[in-house]
Amino acid sequence: MATITLPDASFETAGGSREDLAPLYNVVFHNDDATTMEFVVFILVSLYRHEIESAVRLMYEVHNAGAAVVATLPLEVAELKKDQTHATARSKGYPLTCTIEPA
Predict the structure, then answer these.
(1) 95 with 32: CB under 8 angstroms?
(2) What's the rounded Cα separation, in Å, for the pair 90 and 96?
(3) Strands 67-74 and 12-13
(4) Quick one: pLDDT at residue 6?
């Protein structure tokens, strides 16, 4: 039987190690009494690319726990998604709020 040698399992990029990558941030949705559950699911599917089942689960987590992490992204992307979420919510008259915190 031939012996197979696997490559080193450490994570490296063309620019160096994993530590050289941009730090990640959590996007956290916060519950409110005015934003509909359907709209939260719509945002999670359309802006954050969650599948319907995942979006519904996260929506209920936000509803029941008061807040939930819906995405973990590099800072610039997290800020963009936060701004898109707020702009879309305000355009429909909803006070949906999300924040960004270090992962």
Answers:
(1) yes
(2) 8
(3) unpaired
(4) 59
